[in-house]
């Protein structure tokens, strides 16, 4: 629990901000989510967090938020540029020359870059992924790419990238005793986590992403880096890029074909091993593998390639993966239901225990509609 003793204020937002707070919470930080008193939320990324409901439109509510932030190490701002400043809670209030908390790491997550002409526009993961240039490289049909849920922009380029920068800022604070603004935008973050394919794309000589979508090594073009349907409807992944691994795979694959039934005269002399290095043979190799995988059930192929270097494993459902690979200390092992946090669930607990708010003051805040509780 490396972040034990660190206090994080997370203003309620969508995917990237609560995910950043979740990662910090899972590693020991005390994370307090700030909700609006009238809010209803379906945020499931709440493990280990507490919620206070504060009305930022009421002067006493804004002052309460200042007190919370002054006592914290990290603030996560999920809003569009300028929102926190209009509330009187911008970074200058805390990190300026006479700032109230000059050790604060003030993390701001936005969608489009703050200096771009798109900065004031609404958007979501798919929009940021599109503007990053990465979406155009993802697998799909010849006419359009597919997208990987909302993982790349929201969670990798947004939430996890934010966590990385927050941790670096906390490390730097150990030397300078000063906090700093941490700026994250999901377009730039997506480009950063996609550095490898983007570099390959700009250097065609590497051969990784030089051709049209769906014809490259890692985007579905290579038959030995692909997904195949089994007889029972299950799926197997194949990722034997290195020739020795492909050699292990193809030997066991051909041996496992039931009675060599798919090796008709059409395929009997097909040079499967040599086909890996010959792109002209890739379509034929993919057809050969497709026919072969369809001859057995997923569990049979799983057993055949288990404990080998064939790089061939089954596609598991989330439930199967949690059952088979979730360790006793894995926080995501139990996927039976969401971890919900009611807005204002811990308002009184946090304010009285951590800000020394008295009973009388608490009642005044309630009467002033500055806070909410549930």
UniProtKB/TrEMBL annotation:
InterPro entries: CoA-transferase_III, CoA-Trfase_fam_III, CoA-Trfase_III_dom3_sf, CoA-Trfase_III_dom_1_sf
UniProt-listed Gene3D superfamilies: Crotonobetainyl-coa:carnitine coa-transferase, domain 1, formyl-coa transferase, domain 3
SUPFAM superfamilies from the UniProt entry: CoA-transferase family III (CaiB/BaiF)
GO molecular function, one term: catalytic activity
Similarity comment: Belongs to the CoA-transferase III family.
UniProt name for this protein: CoA-transferase family III domain-containing protein
């Amino acid at each position: 629990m490396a972040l034990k003793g660190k206090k994080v204020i997370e203003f309620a937002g969508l995917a990237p901000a609560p995910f950043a707070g979740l990662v910090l919470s899972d590693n020991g930080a005390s994370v307090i989510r700030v909700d609006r008193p009238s809010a209803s939320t379906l945020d499931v990324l709440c493990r280990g967090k507490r919620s206070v409901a504060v009305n930022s439109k009421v002067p006493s509510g804004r002052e309460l938020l200042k007190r919370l932030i002054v006592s914290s190490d990290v603030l996560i701002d999920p809003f569009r540029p300028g929102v926190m400043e209009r509330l009187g809670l911008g970074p200058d209030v805390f990190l300026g020359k006479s700032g109230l908390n000059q050790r604060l790491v003030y993390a701001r997550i936005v969608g489009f870059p703050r200096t771009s002409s798109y900065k004031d526009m609404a958007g979501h993961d798919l929009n940021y992924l599109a503007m990053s240039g990465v979406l155009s490289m993802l697998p799909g049909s010849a006419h359009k790419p597919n997208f990987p849920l909302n993982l790349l922009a929201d969670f990798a380029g947004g939430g996890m990238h934010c966590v990385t920068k927050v941790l670096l800022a906390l490390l730097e604070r150990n030397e300078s005793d000063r906090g700093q603004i941490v700026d994250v935008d999901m377009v730039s973050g997506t480009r950063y986590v996609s550095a490898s394919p983007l570099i390959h794309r700009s250097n065609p000589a590497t051969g990784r992403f030089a051709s049209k979508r769906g014809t490259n090594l890692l985007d579905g073009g290579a038959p030995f880096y692909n997904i195949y349907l089994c007889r029972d409807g299950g799926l197997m992944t194949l990722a034997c890029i290195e020739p020795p691994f492909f050699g292990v795979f193809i030997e066991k694959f051909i041996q496992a074909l039931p009675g060599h039934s798919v090796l008709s005269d059409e395929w009997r002399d097909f040079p499967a091993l040599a086909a890996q290095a010959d792109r002209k043979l890739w379509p034929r190799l993919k057809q050969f593998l497709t026919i072969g995988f369809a001859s057995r059930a997923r569990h049979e192929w799983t057993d055949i390639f288990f404990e080998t270097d064939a790089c061939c494993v089954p596609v598991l459902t989330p439930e199967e993966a949690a059952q088979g690979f979730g360790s006793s200390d894995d926080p995501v092992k139990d996927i039976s239901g969401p971890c919900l946090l009611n807005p204002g669930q811990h308002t009184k607990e946090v304010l009285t225990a951590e800000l020394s708010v008295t009973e009388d003051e608490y009642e005044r805040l309630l009467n002033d509609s500055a806070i909410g509780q549930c």
